[in-house]
Write the structure tokens for this entry.
Amino acid sequence: MVSSSTTPTTLDVTVTVLTAPFQIRGQARINMALQAFFNDTTRPTFSIFNANVLGVSVSNPAATMSQPEMIVHKRACHAIIVEGNPPAGSFSYPSTNVQLVAYTEQYAILGKYPIAADQRVTDFIELAQTPFIPVLEARIFGLFQGRPGLSTAASVALLHRSNILTYHRA
């Protein structure tokens, strides 16, 4: 009997993760489509390698640090910013985009939120089938006195729906 083994291709993708106390920028090692990787509920954490960490608030005593690996709980992510253009096939979206501003405890995220054509804007976050909601052409604003160097824009960002407190049309 011949045994064949296939190893999934691993891709290092530069991401910036926004949590309440930190912005963490580095490489996420992805072994499946990006959207599937972050929405995989069987893995509650992921690692960011070669991490540059910035305490987002000027009052945070952990101003900056570098770590070879930071382990991040997905539910702690307010937003995951995919830097540059995501690899082909990384995401699939509904065809309707609605311009909204969503608010988390620390951030306001303006952008185009893909919503199914038959879905009401008032329900789409609660009815989402995945933990992360994509935002296209995102602009990110801190709701605090932040440190210089915070990420403010992304072609694609993923918001953890449990951290969205309120939202409105832009």
